[in-house]
Structure to design on (1139 residues):
């Protein structure tokens, strides 16, 4: 029956078409909303235009740090025609134990490197390790997979809301022939133009410049909620906890009230954490802490003036600390363009911010502003994916340069002399008239380039401090040392000023027998037996007995008073990160910190800069500058354009007393028997003539120091500090060499060489101020 | 032996003609929407529609029996052109057409009509299909153009031939068990081809279709874009010319292979379903013609044409909604493309001719099973 058979065929057709209708209905009616959202998300787009960071130059315009264009070979993962995009199960899930996770990852990367034809091909043509290529691609894909889980949506790599490209290799030159460029011959593998920090002078001034780093993933949540970029979100919350803990109950309540007033509710991560959907359990609390930290920060940073006043009252002296903390946060606040970028859910990957040193302090000025383009696809010209119309655009603003007060030539010389000496140490040269830092060297140094993203192994090697030399440690401003005899000029100034208490005038003599006792069995020795000695000679010969006696007459409180008067025990306020305040002890401090009362022997130690005294080379140079310039304690500064801050103050020592101290210090280098005499009389380390022969008529005031430290059997830290020319000082300096022995023997010759370099570079009388 | 025009008009299946005109109108509207502005594709489409309607009228007026009579000749010419296109094209150039200057002719499209005609001729003259061995000849006839087209390579078009062949054999009266046997052998052959013949990109397409989340590469991306277009259209659509997926070029080959996605996006479920319903009405009318026709050659031509169009439509829509892997089969009467349009019009003309030329020849056996 033909008709019957035709009906069977017809019926089959109808049944098959029923399936079509069902599927059509499922997509267009049941899942319509989901696909509508996906279609709409494609319609707007934004792009970040990366700005160039400002340069860091020395006082004569020599470049220390600059952004250079780079042409990175990158894999744009969304465009890769990859054979086997990783099956989802091979991507890492946070639920796996770390060891297993690492193993899975390694296995997946190996598999990609060996089996994925595209990766093998890229590797073969570019000569890059297949594993390196595979790792890069894997990481971006893993990130995309994580995002997929987060958004719970069927997302393709090209739709993920962050830049899905990975740097395969850093090229500093535009790629020549044979290197893939543009979209061919491998789609998805191309050169990406960006900028990267580079340091033309290598390790020169590395500690001053500091480092730059990537804005990391942890910052991201904080960014979205506060609109401000914070260093480490988690750290901020903890820091807040510390500050809060330090407050008394009343101030704490007052502060919390204010925050509640400002925010509308009391921030509490534990209460917030359960509300965070889409964040995996173990990350929740952390994210909540970020958000709370960000909210507190914004509440504290932008209160109305009268509320700010109340904050200040509530916090008392802690306000200073909070303010400092807030200023730190302000440095990395987002610019408008970047905030839009962030609010649009883009990931700030590979955007550098300053993390230490000048890069961090002046980050806001240096970084300029990223530009952005907000684009919308229009239907006007249906070309490939439509034409993009700019809704708004803001051009990137190139970052401003920072001109340092540092003279690169002097800086380089100081660094190489330190290195040559073979000791770890630091050298500081400042202008005593206004505090301009001329050189700030620390040895050993490091190459800041190691920290520029993408960070390599070198950076982690530096951070974990292989070899224990602490190259990242800026000894000039962060290193705290016992002061030793370089403390004596300050004690002398204080003792002479406190004449009604000590009875010491410039002419008063104290008899040195070579030792003094502070108890039945405790003896304090001098380096020699100096007989009856007055202050100038005591400084020249560095007689301990004179200062023991002077210190005993002053008492520890007055010693501490004068030390603080000369700026010890507090940060100098130099524009650098992580400056150490050092320590000036007194009986009250000892009672609190150690829980013991003060002994006479400790007064003796104190008076020669030993015991609990801890100072930084920068503090010493600044104190010396105060003696040199007639009693003005300046704030050292590094930014030439910003100039001195005006935060200087007068020390309460009469000019004629400082004059006496200066005379004593001149004798150190000028008179036979002075501890620094030989260094200025003997030929310079780099030269045939002695300092005195090369620069006749330049009198140098100096003071050596040999600071005993806790480590038994090791030589003392060698100090030498001073200023020149003694009559009209233009430079004050301090030098410390760790465990190098006697200051007069180890440090003074190096200092003489550095000083000679200073006069060769600046001439006898620098133009300014003379 | 053509009728007078009046007789022809009286006998013409006007319902089917109306449905075809409706489908062509759909095509005109959405090719206009999908074709890039500034390109002459819409203009060309209009030209093909006019030509196609002309060809359809001519073919319908023509006695299909004449065509069936020359079935072998037409088939031979088709095979020769397929061979020529395969052998004369430049190396590494996967073209499947002759460039005649004004239009590009795709022999694979015309091979569909040729296959229907040759099978109709063979099955109306021979009775060997009642035996298992007798299936070999019609299957080989089908295999010849299929393999040549597969070598082009064009999997989608080749896939259309198989249901046509089987439906015609079944309608002619071949036995179930023989057909199942042939089908089994065919599946074996497919497995063999998958292992040894198919190109990597073809395999990948199939795999991408089987598991789109695993293959987030280009093919699955296209499938997803098509689905987004359809889904975002919703019930009523975004309006003609307002589809973002269409206008922004996210929908791949949007004026031919994926034109249904454009229709679904801009006219919604209502529009897409209406179009598919129109097609179903054409097929229903076509099966009606089959039933009415008593002449063996005419029956076979009608079955062949209806199944050909139904298969092609099903594959095209199936790809757009994600039921089938991406192939590259056009939507009859709707998609842009001269060869496709002309072939469909010739086929439709043949069907109309069968409907309007009742040859009252009683077959010897009435095709009884």
């Amino acid at each position: 029956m033909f008709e019957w058979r035709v009906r069977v065929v017809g019926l089959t057709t109808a049944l098959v078409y029923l399936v079509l209708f069902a599927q059509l209905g499922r997509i267009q009616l049941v899942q319509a909303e989901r696909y509508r959202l996906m279609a709409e998300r494609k319609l707007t787009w934004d792009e970040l235009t990366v700005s160039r960071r400002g340069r860091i130059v020395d006082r004569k315009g020599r470049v220390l740090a600059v952004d250079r264009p780079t042409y990175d070979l990158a894999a744009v993962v969304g465009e890769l025609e990859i054979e086997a995009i990783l099956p989802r199960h091979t991507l890492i899930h946070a639920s796996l134990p770390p060891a297993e996770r690492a193993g899975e990852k390694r296995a997946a990367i190996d598999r990609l490197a060996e089996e994925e034809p595209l990766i093998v091909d890229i590797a073969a043509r570019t000569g890059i390790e297949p594993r390196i290529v595979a790792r890069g691609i894997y990481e971006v894909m893993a990130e995309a997979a994580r995002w997929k889980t987060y958004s719970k949506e069927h997302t393709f790599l090209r739709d993920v809301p962050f830049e899905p490209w990975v740097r395969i290799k850093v090229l500093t030159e535009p790629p020549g022939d044979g290197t893939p460029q543009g979209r061919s011959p491998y789609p998805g593998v191309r050169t990406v133009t960006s900028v990267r920090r580079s340091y033309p002078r290598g390790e020169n001034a590395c500690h001053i410049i500091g480092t730059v780093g990537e804005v990391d993933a942890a910052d991201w949540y904080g960014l979205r909620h506060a609109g401000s970029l914070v260093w480490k979100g988690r750290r901020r919350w903890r820091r807040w906890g510390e500050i809060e803990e330090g407050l008394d109950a009343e101030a704490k309540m007052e502060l919390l009230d204010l925050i509640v007033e400002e925010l509308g509710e009391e921030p509490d991560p534990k209460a917030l954490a359960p509300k965070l959907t889409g964040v995996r359990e173990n990350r929740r609390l952390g994210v909540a802490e970020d958000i709370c930290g960000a909210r507190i920060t914004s509440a504290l940073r932008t209160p109305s003036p009268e509320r700010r006043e109340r904050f200040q009252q509530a916090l008392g002296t802690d306000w200073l600390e909070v303010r400092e903390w807030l200023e730190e946060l302000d440095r990395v606040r987002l610019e408008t363009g970047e905030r839009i970028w962030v609010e649009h859910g883009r990931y700030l990957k590979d955007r550098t911010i300053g993390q230490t040193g000048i890069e961090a302090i002046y980050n806001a000025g240096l970084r300029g502003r990223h530009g952005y383009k907000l684009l919308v696809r229009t239907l006007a010209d249906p070309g490939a994916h439509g034409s993009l119309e700019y809704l708004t655009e803001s051009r990137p603003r190139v970052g401003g340069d920072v001109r340092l007060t540092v003279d690169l030539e002097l800086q380089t010389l100081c660094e190489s002399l330190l290195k040559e000496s073979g000791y770890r140490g630091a050298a500081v040269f400042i202008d005593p008239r206004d505090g301009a830092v001329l050189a700030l060297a620390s040895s050993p140094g490091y190459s800041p380039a190691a920290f520029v993203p993408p960070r390599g192994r070198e950076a982690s090697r530096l951070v974990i401090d292989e070899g224990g030399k602490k190259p990242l440690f800026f000894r000039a401003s962060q290193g705290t040392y016992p002061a030793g005899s370089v403390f004596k000029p300050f004690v002398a100034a204080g003792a002479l000023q406190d004449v009604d208490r000590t009875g010491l005038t410039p002419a008063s003599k104290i008899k040195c027998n070579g030792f003094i006792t502070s108890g039945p069995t405790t003896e304090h020795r001098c380096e020699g037996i100096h007989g009856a000695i007055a202050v100038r000679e005591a400084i020249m010969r560095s007689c301990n007995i004179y200062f023991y006696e002077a210190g005993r007459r002053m008492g520890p409180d007055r010693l501490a008073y004068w030390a603080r008067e000369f700026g010890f025990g507090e940060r100098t306020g130099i524009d650098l990160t992580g400056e150490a305040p050092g320590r000036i002890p007194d009986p009250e401090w000892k009672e609190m910190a150690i829980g013991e009362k003060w002994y006479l022997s400790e007064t003796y130690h104190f008076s020669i800069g030993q015991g609990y005294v801890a100072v930084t080379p920068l503090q010493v140079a600044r104190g010396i500058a105060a003696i040199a310039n007639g009693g003005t304690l300046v704030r050292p500064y590094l930014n030439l354009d910003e100039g001195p801050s005006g935060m200087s103050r007068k020390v309460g020592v009469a000019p004629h007393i400082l004059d006496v101290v200066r005379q004593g210090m001149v004798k150190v280098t000028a008179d036979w028997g002075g501890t620094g005499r030989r260094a200025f009389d003997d030929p310079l380390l780099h030269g045939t003539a002695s300092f005195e022969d090369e620069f006749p008529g330049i009198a140098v005031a100096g003071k050596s120091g040999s600071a005993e430290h806790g480590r038994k059997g090791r030589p003392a830290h060698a100090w030498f500090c001073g200023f020149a020319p003694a009559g009209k000082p233009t430079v004050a300096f301090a030098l410390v060499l760790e465990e190098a022995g006697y200051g007069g023997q180890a440090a003074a010759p190096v200092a003489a060489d550095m000083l000679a370099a200073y006069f060769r570079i600046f001439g006898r009388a620098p133009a300014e101020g003379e | 032996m053509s009728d007078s025009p009046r007789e022809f008009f009286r006998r013409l299946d006007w319902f089917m003609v109306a449905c075809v005109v409706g489908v062509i109108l759909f095509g005109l509207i959405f090719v206009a929407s999908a074709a890039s502005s500034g390109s002459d594709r819409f203009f060309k489409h209009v030209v093909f529609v006019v030509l196609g309607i002309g060809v359809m009228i001519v073919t319908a007026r023509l006695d299909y029996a004449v065509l069936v009579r020359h079935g072998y000749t037409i088939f031979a010419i088709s095979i020769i052109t397929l061979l020529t296109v395969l052998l004369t094209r430049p190396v590494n150039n996967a073209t499947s057409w002759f460039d005649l200057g004004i239009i590009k002719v795709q022999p694979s499209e015309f091979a569909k009509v040729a296959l229907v005609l040759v099978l109709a001729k063979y099955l109306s003259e021979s009775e060997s299909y009642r035996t298992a061995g007798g299936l070999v000849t019609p299957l080989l006839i089908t295999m010849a153009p299929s393999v040549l087209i597969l070598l082009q390579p064009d999997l989608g078009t080749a896939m259309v031939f198989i249901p046509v062949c089987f439906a015609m054999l079944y309608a002619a009266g071949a036995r179930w068990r023989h057909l199942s046997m042939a089908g089994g052998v065919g599946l074996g052959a497919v497995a063999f081809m998958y292992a040894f013949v198919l190109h990597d990109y073809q395999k990948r397409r199939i795999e991408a279709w089987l598991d789109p989340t695993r293959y987030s590469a280009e093919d699955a991306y296209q499938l997803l874009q098509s689905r987004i277009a359809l889904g975002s259209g919703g019930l009523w659509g975004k309006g003609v010319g307002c589809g973002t997926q269409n206008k922004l070029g996210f929908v791949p080959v949007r004026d031919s292979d994926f034109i249904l996605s454009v229709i679904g996006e801009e006219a919604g479920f209502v529009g897409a379903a209406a179009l598919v319903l129109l097609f179903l009405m054409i097929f229903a009318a076509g099966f009606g013609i089959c039933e009415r026709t008593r002449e063996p050659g005419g029956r076979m031509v009608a079955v062949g044409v209806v199944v050909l169009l139904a298969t092609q439509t099903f594959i095209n829509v199936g790809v757009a909604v994600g039921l089938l892997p991406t192939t590259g089969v056009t939507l009859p009467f709707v998609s842009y493309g001269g060869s496709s349009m002309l072939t469909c019009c010739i086929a439709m003309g043949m069907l109309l001719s069968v409907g309007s030329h009742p040859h009252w020849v009683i077959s010897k056996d009435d095709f009884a099973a």
In short: The two ends of chain B are 31 Å apart (CA to CA). The longest strand of chain B covers residues 98-99. Chain B touches chain A through 60 residues (CB under 8 Å).
